[in-house]
Amino acid sequence: DIQMTQSPSSLSASVGDRVTITCRASQGINNYLAWFQQQPGKAPKSLIYDASTLQSGVPSKFSGSGSGTDFTLTISSLQPEDFATYYCQQYNSYPLTFGGGTKVEIK
Amino acid sequence: EVQLVESGGGLVQPGGSLRLSCAASGFIVSNNYMSWVRQAPGKGLEWVSVIYSGGSTYYADSVKGRFTISRDISKNTLFLQMNTLRAEDTAVYYCATDREGMIRGGGDFWGQGTLVTVSP
Q: What is the model's pLDDT at position B37?
């Protein structure tokens, strides 16, 4: 199974900050990586797929990059609605696996 | 507009069974790659199962042999039959799907989730 390791597990940031979350796969995943945002008590929302392609309707302040085993999600200017938990997921091979999540909190 | 509405969750005793439903609108379930993902209370996301448009299915090792994913085209509904339930199956279960024709983890669109609690 491919293990997905996210870091940090949590971070505190201020409105307007640039935030970067890292996701590392235990083996190469051919850029088959998605990022999700989950607000408390809500279903996850897709942000990015294929490592760097923005989902329709997702603001351009979100961006994804990386290849092979190392990937990042960047939020260019954190806004109040962005405080949430973020997950990466690989879909290169079964079983599909998620990272443990990164909780972004208000400083 | 794609919409997914889960139902069928509830309280069940260990060893019991439950069938979850996911009513779809805005697309035909047999045309899409569809998945179930669960989230235990206070924990992260865990992939459970997927069904391809062609009918192929895959399962997480933790549910293999106990859970079955299926669909009913006449009802445009996805199902998850869960047997021999254990306490560790307690979670919110989400139904999700990719855009038609796409296969990218099954997470483009999500339902609101249904809670399954396995307890004596």
A: 98
